[in-house]
Amino acid sequence: MDMKALFLILMFILGACFGSFLCCQARRIEYKNDKRKKKKLSKRSVCLECGYKLKWYDNVPIVSWLVLKGKCRKCHKKIGLGEILAEVLTGLAFLMIGTTLDMEWMSVRGTADFIITTVFLISVAFLAIYDGLYGKLPVIGLIVAIVIAVVKVITINIIVGVLDGFEPSLIYMPIASAAILGGIYLILYVTSKGKWVGDGDWLLGLAIGIALMEPWLALITLFIANVLACAVMAPVVKKTKNAKIYFGPFMVIGFVIAYTFSEFFFYALSGFYM
């Protein structure tokens, strides 16, 4: 097995572990915020129904869920699909981001971009999981994602400035990207008075736009997110007239796809306009 394949396998495992951890934290935060819940949680992972303290073999990402058939080992209460979806999708997201790292020619800029983007992915993965589970985006989580995205832009500017000289485009392009992705969702939120998108969606769009650093990638992310949201949620909306679409998970998926296949999209668009 070559180093690249081993690296991608490790990225998937790491992503699945983060997916499990972030899902657990989302459950804990919501549980603590629910005033109706009087039972205090311990520091260890527990079943929220019966309080059973999970063993290490109950916490193995993906495997434990499959072995236990999505149920608590003690009370047999269904855990739900949220956990395994979070683990699998976060694992795949890490794997996809991992493919962007050129292990044969690891430039300073490329390596820094990969590391910060991975950290940013962790922050938005948490937001996607929380939004998928509860239909809302925590303000603190959004602020953290925006800060990490800004740090990425500043870091890349410093590296490029030291190695090649200052490039003004590295300042105004992320701003334009953020304006496109965050601005469109803000307009939709204000126009619909919160009926089409939530009040946190535009802030998530702002964070992702800054992290992408390219306006055309922001447009591709917007397109992918909306197509996926319509395709996945259409049957649900058809059955339930008042059903709401939570765009957080779809925006994050769109971000991962746009970032991973940015070169493909670039050459595809270049060929289209030639």
What are its keywords?
70% helix, 10 helices, 274 residues, 0% strand, 2 domains
Describe the 3D structure:
The structure is a single chain. With 274 residues, the protein is an all-alpha fold. The protein folds into two domains: 1-99, no CATH class; 105-274, no CATH class. It is 70% helix and 0% strand. It is built from ten helices and no strands. Helix 6 (169-192) runs antiparallel to helix 7. 34% of the residues are buried.
Morphology? globular
Mean pLDDT: 86
Number of domains: 2
Strand content: under 5%
SSE layout:
Layout: H1 3-33, H2 63-67, H3 82-98, H4 108-134, H5 139-163, H6 169-192, H7 201-212, H8 215-239, H9 248-260, H10 262-273
Helix pairs in contact: 1-3, 1-4, 3-4, 4-5, 4-9, 5-7, 6-7, 6-8, 7-9, 8-9
Task: Give a concise summary.
By secondary structure, the protein is an all-alpha fold. It has helices at 3-33, 63-67, 82-98, 108-134, 139-163, 169-192, 201-212, 215-239, 248-260, 262-273.
